[in-house]
Write a structure and sequence with these properties.
This protein is of the alpha/beta class. It has 4 domains: 100 residues, Response regulator (Rossmann fold); 149 residues, Histidine kinase-like ATPase, C-terminal domain (Heat Shock Protein 90); 151 residues, Response regulator (Rossmann fold); 108 residues, Orthogonal Bundle (Arc Repressor Mutant, subunit A). 55% of the residues lie in helices and 12% in strands. The protein has 23 helices and 16 strands. A 5-stranded mixed β-sheet has the order 6-8-9-11-10. Strands 13-12-14-15-16 form a 5-stranded parallel β-sheet, with helices on both faces. The relative contact order is 0.03.
């Protein structure tokens, strides 16, 4: 509109599409002065203060047309078309002009209409509220009727139940009297059964103890039988005589095997069976066992084979227990497989729930086991045929030994077609911490954390069920015959443990802490020089004397041996007397060192043949105690952490050097400190007790008297 006015176009009338556009045209015209105002017409004629009718009254617009939208008419016409009904093609929408002559009348009418609409809206709102109230009251009324009905029904049922209860109470009262009488009788019978059960259990335990003790006693006469048999075998006997000796030897070994099973079974029953894990190659171990059965298989004309997958089977297992597992399974397979039969042993690696397992399978095509007996085959004392030989504990013991390895064993068998025994052993043992599951094993560095430690301090003193009154000697030799020969020379005076190579020897040295180690030099995996070096550099084993044996006696080899820390170097072939004397003297020297450490907790100026690493170790131990002398809560774990050793390694080291447990040595250091305070100060006994870390004066007095053979009061009187 402004652009048209700027062009000075003469305009007589403006017809806008709606009242708002007409109003805009009016605003544009008012900007230009001196222009003749044209007639302004709009469309809509809406009511309200800003509507077109009000603008006509206000003189902004000259007129506006009522806009009949025709929406209802359009929808009706569309419905007629969609339903194929007659409809009018021409639909005229009528309108009316609103100008100053009728604008006020129309405004009054529209205002009245708006007021009526507002009233209708209010009435609708009130009506909705009343309808909602009516609905809720109606629901409440029906609910009340329903609740009253339920209450009535419940009252009726309650009355009937009450009358029935009275009748039941009378019946129950008479029954209770009879039950109480029966209860008293049953109580008396129960007490009698408990007494009988206790007596039976005691009798059973006594029988088992007697049977186990007798089994132990069988070993001596069997050994005495086996020894003369070995001697008789060397004599020139007839073919029949040799056959009888072989028969007797075979049955002696059968008896020994049964005795071992009984003893192992008894240990398990008493909860005393312990596991001594070693990190070894299971494939090589099982292969060696199978090799021992090869000749037996040939004699029985049985096709026997062992196959293993290419994976690495180095894992933690108890070699003694695993040997019994394999021998029991193979013995059963050979026992129930006839000539020209087949026995297969397979070893493979499997994954189960993200864990790795070594799976050992022993299968045969022997007589098999019926479905009726399969589920009970691992039960204690169970025998498929009551007339068959055997004790019935072999497979039960096998299952126990597998479970002690955190493994599983199962059987698949069909009568007349053979059996398949499957054993699964995990690569990770639950009892072994995660950091110790896969130790770094090489010829250069073996960490102390690689050692599997399962014993408590009380178990350490048992030395793997070895006799504690004899010194413990570790023989490390890859030749079985030489190892057996050395053992035969020393077995009377010493307890012997063995290892087939330097790596296993290092593990056993760290685990059992022997009094002395005898090692060959030329060995696989880890040679004797490296073993000696590792022993001497390891804090927990540095005090152990090492004797090196070798066929190479050159000065260069001797130099290497002594450079690695060997205490003695004996060439092969060696003189048995020389070996015995060297072993005895080295152990005596170790006893002197123990005595020295017991008597001298400080080194002073005395010259003793004590390794510098051991002196430093004891000095550090003493300094830790002296620095925290007043701390009564100081424990072995804190001391071990300060020294970089575990609790068990600290115990073994201190025990080997001083014959004292760490707690005992701490107490002795405290007592010696209290002795100096009693001599050089005027403090009371209570003050000295607390200053030296004792929890109470009474406990201090008790410990002082046990160590010095007199109480602190008498000691002070005697000194004064």
């Amino acid at each position: 509109m402004a652009e048209a006015l700027q062009k000075k176009i003469p305009i007589d009338l403006v017809f806008a599409h709606n009242d708002e556009m007409a109003t805009g045209a009016h605003e544009a015209i008012t900007v230009f002065s001196g222009i003749k105002k044209p007639i302004l017409l709009g469309i809509d004629a809406l009511p309200g203060t800003e509507g077109g009718i009000q603008k006509v009254i206000n003189g902004i617009l000259d007129a506006t047309f009522i806009y009949p939208t025709g929406g209802e008419k359009a929808i009706q016409t569309a419905v007629h078309i969609l339903n194929n009904e007659p409809f009018e093609r021409d639909n005229i929408l009528y309108t009316a002009v609103v100008d100053k002559t009728n604008a006020r009348v129309l405004k009054l009418q529209t205002d009245q209409i708006i007021q009526h609409q507002n009233r209708i809206g209010q009435l609708n709102s009130v009506l909705d509220k009343n309808l909602a109230k009516y609905s809720s009251q109606r629901v409440l009324l029906f609910s009340s009727f329903f609740v009253l009905f339920l209450i009535t029904v419940l009252l009726i049922l309650l009355i009937r139940a009450y009358s029935g209860k009275n009748k039941s109470n009378k019946i129950l009262e008479s029954q209770n009297i009879a039950i109480n009488k029966q209860k008293e009788e049953l109580s008396e019978q129960r007490d009698q059964l408990i007494v009988l059960s206790k007596n039976l259990e005691e009798a059973t335990q006594a029988k088992l103890v007697f049977f186990t003790n007798i089994s132990h006693e069988f070993r001596t006469p069997l050994t005495l039988i086996l020894g003369p048999l070995d001697s008789l075998e060397k004599e020139n006997l007839s073919t029949g005589g040799n056959r009888l000796i072989q028969l007797m030897r075979k049955n002696v070994h059968v008896l020994l095997k049964l005795i071992d099973q009984i003893i192992d079974f008894r240990k398990y029953e008493n909860g005393k069976m312990q596991m001594y894990f070693t990190f070894s190659d299971l494939k090589l171990f099982v292969s060696d066992i199978c090799d021992s059965f090869m000749e037996f298989g040939k004699k029985k004309h049985i096709h026997f084979s062992f196959k293993a997958s290419e994976e690495d089977f180095t894992l933690w297992f108890d070699s003694d227990k695993m040997e019994k597992i394999c021998y029991n399974l193979l013995s059963n397979a050979f026992k129930f497989t006839s000539e020209n039969g087949r026995i297969d042993v397979r070893l493979c690696k499997i994954q189960n729930n993200d864990d790795s397992f070594a799976q050992l399978t022993v299968s045969d095509n022997g007589v098999g086991i019926s479905e009726h007996h399969v589920d009970s085959i691992f039960d204690r004392f169970y025998k498929v045929d009551s007339r068959a030989s055997g004790s019935g504990i072999g497979l039960h013991l096998t299952k126990v030994l597998v479970e002690l390895h955190s493994g599983t064993i199962n059987i698949q068998s069909e009568e007349g077609k053979g059996s398949i025994f499957t054993v699964q052993i995990p690569f990770k043992q639950k009892e072994i911490p995660v950091v110790e599951q896969y130790p770094v094993l090489n010829s250069h560095s073996v960490k102390e954390d690689d050692l599997l430690i399962l014993e408590s301090e009380e178990e350490i003193t048992e030395r793997v069920n070895l006799q504690t009154d004899k010194p413990l000697v570790l023989i490390v030799e890859d030749n079985v015959d030489v190892r057996t020969y050395i053992k035969s020379l020393l077995v009377e005076a010493f307890e012997i443990i063995e290892a087939a190579n330097g790596q296993t020897g290092l593990f056993k040295a760290m685990k059992f802490v022997p009094e002395l180690i005898i090692s060959d030099v030329q060995m696989d995996v880890m040679d004797g020089f490296e073993l000696c070096k590792q022993i001497k550099e390891n804090l927990s084993t540095s005090h152990i004397p090492v004797i090196l044996l070798t066929a190479f006696a050159l000065d260069e080899q001797r130099a290497i041996g002594f450079e690695s820390g060997a205490d003695a170097y004996i060439p092969k072939p060696f003189n048995e007397s020389l070996l015995k004397i060297r072993v005895r003297k080295l152990i005596e020297n170790r006893e002197k060192v123990k005595t020295y450490f017991q008597k001298n907790l400080t080194f002073g100026d005395r010259k003793e043949k004590v390794a510098e690493i051991d002196k430093t170790f004891i000095s550090k131990f003493r300094k830790i105690i002296e620095d925290k002398l007043i701390d009564s809560d100081l424990n072995v774990d804190e001391i071990g952490k300060s020294l970089g050793l575990s609790r068990v390694q600290l115990y073994r080291k201190i025990k080997s050097l001083t014959n004292y447990a760490p707690n005992e040595l701490v107490r002795i250091i405290r007592l010696k400190a209290s002795e100096q305070l009693l001599l050089n100060t005027e403090k009371s006994i209570s003050e000295i007790a607390y200053e030296t870390g004792f929890s109470s004066p009474s406990y201090f007095t008790k410990c002082f008297k046990e160590y010095f053979s007199e109480n602190p009061t008498d000691f002070m009187k005697r000194i004064k």
